[in-house]
Amino acid sequence: MPNLPPASAAADRNKQTIVEQLKLVLPSRGLALEIAAGTGQHAAWFAAAMSSWVWQPTDADPEALPGISAWSAHAGLTNVRSPLLLDVMATRWPSSGPPFTEPFDAVYCANMFHISPWASCAALMHGSVRHLALDGIVVLYGPFLEDSVPTAAGNLAFDASLRERNPQWGLRRLEDVTAQANQVGLRLQSRREMPANNLLLVFGRGQ
Fold it and tell me: Dmax over Cα atoms in the chain, in whole Å?
């Protein structure tokens, strides 16, 4: 049996709980763009669980792309496209090669905001709305701070450790993320509590 591609323990732990929620918030079929796909475990797991969806994984790190391809190949999937290089801060998506021509029914991004500069949030919202179908949604997963919800001790410690490693990192306030989404016409449609003090957030046009 061939060796598995590089893996993330966190992605392995949360992939099933996330896909269960995706099945509730996504239509029966569509085209999804994944931002910051990392190891590619989510792309492979979600595509296998939702065979009527086509998944387009991307990442800003060119060294991540072979591993993303390997996970999909290992699973024998035909509904995952070849991964593309995409930095959300770039003025065009993807960052190299032909630009996207098809609208996406969903843009999915997990665990990126807290390990990237705050400007990446506005960049993701602006880029997403350029490439989102009129009835498409943006789905975010990860830990967030909320003004009206006490922050778990684990998230406080995680936030402090992130800021110590890089002053531009850290957990983001849900209210600030929502404000960035509102600026491009996206509204928070759903807030879903997830294990380990994470949230799954759904943004879409309209109310």
Answer: 50
Evaluate if pTM is beyond 0.85.
yes
What's the CA gap between 154 and 10, in Å, rounded?
15
Q: What is the pLDDT of residues 82-111, one digit of tens each?
A: 999 999 999 899 999 999 999 999 999 999
Q: Which CATH superfamily is domain 9-205 in?
A: Vaccinia Virus protein VP39 (3.40.50.150)
Segment 152-175, tens digit of pLDDT: 999 999 999 999 999 999 999 999
Tokens encoding 78:
């035909």
Q: Dump the DSSP string for 61-112.
A: -GGGHHHHHHHHHHTT-SSBPPPEE--TTSSSSSSSSSPP-SPEEEEEEES-
Delimit the domains of the chain by residue range.
9-205
Look at the chain and count its residues.
207
- Picking from 107, 105, 57, 54, the residue whose alpha carbon sits closest to that of residue 82 is 57
